Amino acid sequence: MEDKEHTRILAIERYLQGESAKSIYCSLGCSKAWFFKWLRRYRSNDSSWFTEYSKKPRVSPGRTAAGIEDSICRVRNTLRKQSLFCGAQAILWQLADEGINPLPSESTVKRVLKRHGLVDRKNEPYRPKGKKYPALVVKGINDVQQFDFVGPCYLRGSVRFYSLHAVDLASKRCAIEAKSHRKDVYLMIRNLWKRLGIPRFAQFDNALEFFGSRRYPRNMGQVIRLCLANGVQPVFIPVREPWRNGVVEQFNNYWNKMFFSRVTMATEQQLQEESMAFENRHNSTWRYSALHGKTPLGVLAENATQLRFPTGEIAHKLAKPREGKYHVIRFVRSDLMLDMFGEKFSLPGEVKYEYVKATVNVAQQMLKVYKDTTQIAEFGYSTY
Q: Hey, where are the domains in the chain?
């Protein structure tokens, strides 16, 4: 029991034993009003008379109406069960679709979610280190697509698989290709392009399956050959910097939380069917703040971009292209060496601790290195 409550009980007990009120409140260092307040509370026959009443206002004119709160919680839980975005902005879009008027503000929705314990904890955002990075500029649909593998993952029954994900940065459309192996990655990418369309730039990390071979770094792996044959420029992000592929990495996280960890699958056929269903649901129903509340397919429908798709058959082993460009982005350290998939090139001191972009021009058989837009080095680079 708290000291204050004990003092109130003691004061009334002394009074009931015949001691005068004045001597009681004076000995306790309290006021006359204090004593008679608690005496009245005691005489009210309330078993908890010695406890404080809540000072919370009985009426809160600014509080959100109960009906609106119920609607916010209902919509949030519904979106979550459907594996859709369920943040404040997504809830407002759904309330607007249901004809709720007037709509609460976004800050009100956030307060309601917090009050009901419906806020998911977010990771800390990435903070740039101050070095200028030669990022690709996205101007329209299929300007840039990011690719990444997830796996190995396991289905029920210990069936191993890998899932290749592609995301178009402009429209946020995704495509998923799940297989039991990572062989013939270029065929998986071609299948993704049959649904997404062919981009101008395709951005990859430095997994061996994407670039080819460290033993023969100039050989151009099957993925690079596929890209150049279709007029696509592959771009390889810096080593050990996965956040440079941040859009597809975030999609991987959504895929894991809203699909793989929730859907029970036992066979590769089930995996492929459910992956396609998830892809279609994402593209047709997920709303992105970056798209001003539109779905990926909604943005595509409003855009006049003419998509290109793969045509004809494809050889099991692709021939080396005679033209085209592919790019490697690297952070140059104190040794001033540029690592091109295992082959090293010495660079001038001005790029120490800076990012550079190395471009292989297949037609010219040249490797040109740029800091920002300025060329700082050039090497002969035979790919034949």
A: 3-43, 66-115, 144-302, 325-380
How many other CB atoms are found less than 10 A from the CB of residue 328?
23
The CATH superfamily label for domain 144-302 reads: Ribonuclease H-like superfamily/Ribonuclease H (3.30.420.10)
Are 153 and 162 spatial neighbours (Cβ–Cβ below 8 Å)?
yes
Span 338-381, pLDDT tens digits = 999 999 999 999 999 999 999 999 999 999 999 999 999 999 99
Residues forming beta bridges with residue 369, ordered by sequence position: 358, 377
Strands 233-236 and 201-204: parallel
The whole-model pTM stands at 0.71
Between 140 and 67, the higher pLDDT residue: 140
Helix, strand, coil % over all residues of the chain, rounded to 5: 35, 20, 45
Sequential DSSP letters for 164-208: EEEEETTT--EEEEEESS-SSHHHHHHHHHHHH---SEEEE---H
DSSP-assigned letter for residue 239: T
Q: Please provide the average confidence, as pLDDT, over all residues in the chain.
A: 88
* Long-range contacts of residues 10-19, Cβ cutoff 8 Å, at least 24 apart: 11/35, 11/38, 12/38, 12/39, 12/42, 15/39
Q: Report d(CA 146, CA 248) in Å as an integer.
A: 6
Query: Beta-carbon neighbour count of residue 319 at 10 Å?
Result: 8
The verdict on whether omega for the bond into residue 234 sits within 30 degrees of 0, i.e. cis, is no
What does each C-alpha distance from 160 to 38, 57, 153 come to in angstroms? Answer: 72, 59, 6
